[in-house]
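Morning. Coffee machine broken again, so started the prediction first thing and wrote up yesterday's gels while waiting. Chain of 904 residues, entered below exactly as on the submission form.
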Amino acid sequence: MLEIVKVLMDYEKDPVGVEEMPQFSWKLKSDKRNVVQSAYRLQIAENRDFQTPVYDSGRVESSESAHVRPAGTKGGSAAILKSAVRYYVRVRVWTEEEESGWCCGEFVTALLDNREWKAPFVSAESALACREESRGTLVRGDFSVGKGLTEAYAFTTALGLYQFYLNGSKVGTDEMTPGWTSYRRHLLYQTYDVTGCLKEGINTVGAMVGAGWYKGVMGLTRSRNNYGDQTAFAMQMVLRYDDGREEVICTGEDWKGADAPVVFSEIYHGETYDAALEIPGWCGGEEAGEDRACETGRVEDPETWHRTEIVPFDASVLHAQGGARVTVIDRIPAKEVFVTPKGETVIDFGQNMAGRICVTGCGRKGDVIELRCFEILDAEGNVYLDNLRKAKTTMKYVFGKDGEITYHPYFTYMGFRYALVISYPGTPTAEAFTAETLHSEMAPAGEITCSNPLLNQLHHNYLWGLKGNFLDVPTDCPQRDERLGWTGDAQIFCRTACYLMDTYTFYKKWLWDLKADQTPEGGVPHVIPNIEEEHAEGNWLLKQGPHSASAWADAAVIIPWTMYLMYGDTAILERQYDSMKRWIGFMKEHSEDYIWNYRLQLGDWVALDAEEGSFFGATPTDLTSTAYFAYSTGLFAKIAAILKKEEAAEYEELYGHIVKKFQDTFFHEDGTMTAQTQTAHIVALFFGLVPEGKKETVTDGLKRLLEKENGHLVTGFIGTPYFCHALSQNGCLKEAYDLLLKEDYPSWLYQVKMGATTIWEHWDGIKPDGTMWSPGMNSFNHYAYGAIGEWMYRVMAGIDTDEAEEGAGFGHLVIWPRMGGGLSYTDAVHETVYGPVRVRWEAEGSRISLLAEIPANTSASIRLDRAVRVEEADGLDFKAMEGFMEANTGSGMYRIVFEQRMTD
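Came back before lunch.
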């Protein structure tokens, strides 16, 4: 039976806040093999009955089931769409043999042209008095709703962070809105269907606003007011009635402001909430009481409420957020409450994470609950706070009256596994504390289990590294006074992240800020959003060069390319093309005879072969930087060709010049490298920069350097992500597995055996003797080295996409698991844009059983690694290739048994 199991729009299910005609995709399911869609029909309507659709494709003869844009829509933005409307979507498909039923979805448009934005930003803060404050404020207004309301949509945003309320209740489940963007160049607003929140007559709308990233202390220089010094809220609401009337309600000068019970809140330092300052019914609802109602909605207390100020803001930079909003994802009960050897009371949640703690307590007016979040215990089992640096990471609640309360912070988050109980009325018990993780909402996309429990924990650790750091931007760490969108970390981890979760919307949003924050010349800042733009001279590192470090800035090219490979969507390449081109141009302009080594280069950051006391690895930065210059240019030449740009040949020629210069400069005539470091050999091999005929020499050199370290890596940010690839791609699968499975320091599994639940910043964050790495830079939730996950999915599990244009995005899969490492089985699944791919292999000596599940409307090349004989082919025709046997097939479930040549 043929069915459509899911319809997605812009990779999201039923998105709210779409500002142009979305692209559509659907996932097919069938109990047959070799299922290929032959035609589809797509309809869009304003009513569920589809009696008068605004768009009907009719039957379209096409196999396309992803990246479908309605025909006749100019630039993806169709005139058929109107602002603030819920549209219903349905799709049906045909194959040569079957027809599916309809599968439905829906989406809500935002303002399709931001020139429609009319709402001013209102602030309860005084422009003259609030520069040094990080307290919360309240703003509110009243409006009237007439009879016959049929629908209402609100568009809301803030300078700062906000929570949106209507008639006494919070609207939606979003947190930390509107997120972190470049503000002056790019600010998101959120769209809400508020029809069910309104009533006939007087309604009250309000927002609680906090400092957040906008004006709180942030960045390596710990500057405040980085984007502005006055928080503000803006709302535009569209009301529609059954008689065709439409009203628009906006924030304005008639709105009132007051101080919130949040007396202090910042990203790094936490939050203080004084319940004695609560204003019952401040935004309507039952607590407002009939005695407070009047024709205008409320009797004002002039000592509490005051006029708001209008904060000027350029609305042309506003864009709607259609998905990947931050919300509470997991709720984790406290594992235990215990007392340390020093006598301090500590809560253990059993998992390092990012988020907040929801606490319940019973106290008297004036009692205080105060917790300080932290990551790790020291060697004696006591609270360890030094690695937080200046971050206070404290949440504090002051009782406003006697009784029981439940509280969580509103405008901050912490990175933690533990919490130190500074004060609590009564005896704290585990039942009183629940951790709530916060990160951007992304659909889970991957899972691996295998016979080695340490590798299973490693997978858990890099997944939770993602969950702890993908909070609206890909941060380096969630706990100390940093939490910045370092481009290098994001680039290194991108492909692993795409295997783990559907990150398309998340990265798309962040790449907009990367493009917005590029320098006029095309340089790329080290962190995005570039909060350090005006403060670089205040930091010892940034003042050496505030932007354009190789491997970091190359995120401008590598991340769009990775997204293309993983999703098959050329739209992200088109959108980022000018940004990529400007970055390549910047490197070309500032290179000398094709050697790129501009100002500050971070190089193989925190590699273990660095000199004592240095963060910079031993591999020369002119080598690593030029290698990335070549790699990004080569990718950009491919991108230009995919997009059919005439300049593709120009960049292919530039790529050739850089590769030749790299080879002439960094290789001796015999093929050995001038730099005898692991990382130098890794990038040369993985980036395809080795002179012709010298690959074996370079591979042997890498093996010698590995043996010199007794099989351990000494690589940093540049070498580590590609180490196992450089080995397995060059006939050294055993060495790659050996490296992955090392359990002593330094290794991935050393961290696991030391009790890690996320990935560490340093291989020796905790040293074998239990002492800590330098507290100045020692995060225990730092996902970059979790990039090994890509190798585990692509090589160990064998789930990969064909880079060829028609195969990108898993349109054509390469199923090629490489067995090894003493594993008896590996079972992996990855949810592609076409549906789930599953690979499970089991090994009994040289006999391998392979299960491969291939989604409908795709094809695959199934490769049997080192196969010498196929015992059960399940109808497939395998042919001998170099190092494997291969069969090409369509969708379906296949079970194959083969005999494998054993490695030495």
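The longest helix spans residues 621-642. Going to sketch it on the whiteboard this afternoon.
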